[in-house]
């Protein structure tokens, strides 16, 4: 399957998954432990751009660190769940495909949780270019994602509870290689494992 088709199927999958997303992926104790580990490194900022904000789990936590949040997701169904979860005027929501995002502004912090692994390698440089363009001077990026040993990519099969099957993008970054690649692109970041199966990227654009 070509990249454009994979991206479209990935968007379709998460739109269809929205109503059952928390039930499939959210374990409160695990999530709280992970969020506490990740967010202890998060600076307090004026403005935050959250990419692939989903059902608002991380958006809610980010409100402790940001005065305003622009939450971007391609799924209006995910945004609807986020609205139910968070009733706060500091959060504005944008429905858009991140791969074709017209930036609504510049920000002190760009945050993304479990999204980098859904960026195909042929879009990697453009994606990080978008982040660099969206940051204010001295702005910071904070990324969290799942960690696997060694690089991998291409399609990953996912299922809905009704049995429908979708192929989405899943790239397993080698952390040392990821750090080198970002350094080459002009980033000054730390890439570190935070748990046995997650990592975070934190830093600035040089």
Number of helices: 7
CATH structural architecture: 3-Layer(aba) Sandwich
- Global mean pLDDT: 92
Number of domains: 1
Low-confidence stretches: none
**Taking strands numbered 1, 2, ... along the chain, how are they ordered across the largest sheet?**
3-2-1-4-5-9-8
Overall structural class, as computed from helix and strand content, comes to alpha/beta
Task: Work out the helicity level.
Answer: 25-40%
Alpha carbon gap, first and last residue: 36 Å
Do you know the CATH topology?
A: Rossmann fold
Strand content: 25-35%
In sequence order, what are the helices and strands, one letter per element? HHHEHEHEEHEEEHEE
Q: How many strand segments?
A: 9
Just give the CATH class: Alpha Beta
**Superfamily at the CATH H level?**
Vaccinia Virus protein VP39
C-alpha Rg (nearest Å): 16 Å
Q: Describe the sheet with the most strands.
A: 7 strands, mixed
Shape label? globular
What topology emerges from the helices and strands here?
Elements: H1 3-17, H2 21-25, H3 28-39, E1 45-51, H4 57-62, E2 66-73, H5 76-85, E3 91-95, E4 107-113, H6 124-134, E5 135-146, E6 155-159, E7 165-169, H7 175-184, E8 187-193, E9 198-205
How would you describe this protein?
With 206 residues, this protein is of the alpha/beta class. It has a single domain (3-205), classed as Rossmann fold. Helices cover 33% and strands 31% of the residues. The protein contains 7 helices and 9 strands, in the order H-H-H-E-H-E-H-E-E-H-E-E-E-H-E-E. It has helices spanning 3-17, 21-25, 28-39, 57-62, 76-85, 124-134, 175-184; strands at residues 45-51, 66-73, 91-95, 107-113, 135-146, 155-159, 165-169, 187-193, 198-205. The strands form 2 sheets. The protein has a 7-stranded mixed β-sheet with strand order 3-2-1-4-5-9-8. Strands 6-7 form a two-stranded antiparallel ribbon. The longest helix is centred in the first third of the chain and has 15 residues, at 3-17. The N and C termini lie far apart (36 Å). The model has no long low-confidence stretch (mean pLDDT 92).
């Amino acid at each position: 399957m070509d990249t454009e088709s994979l991206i479209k199927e990935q968007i379709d999958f998460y739109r269809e998954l929205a109503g059952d997303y928390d039930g499939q992926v959210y374990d409160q104790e695990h999530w709280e432990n992970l969020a506490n580990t990740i967010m202890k490194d998060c600076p307090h900022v004026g403005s935050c751009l959250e990419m692939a904000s989903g059902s608002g789990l991380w958006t809610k936590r980010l409100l402790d660190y940001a005065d305003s949040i622009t939450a971007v997701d391609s799924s209006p169904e995910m945004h609807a769940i986020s609205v139910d979860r968070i009733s706060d005027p500091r959060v504005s929501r944008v429905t858009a495909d991140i791969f074709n995002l017209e930036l609504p502004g510049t920000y002190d912090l760009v945050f993304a949780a479990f999204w980098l692994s859904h960026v195909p390698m042929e879009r990697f440089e453009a994606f990080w270019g978008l982040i660099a363009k969206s940051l204010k001077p001295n702005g910071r990026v904070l990324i969290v994602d799942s960690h696997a040993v060694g690089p991998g990519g291409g399609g990953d099969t996912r299922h809905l509870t009704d049995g429908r099957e979708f192929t989405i993008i899943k790239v397993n970054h080698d952390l040392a290689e990821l750090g080198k690649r970002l350094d080459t692109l002009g980033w000054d970041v730390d890439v570190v494992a935070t748990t046995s199966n997650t990592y975070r990227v934190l830093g600035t654009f040089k």
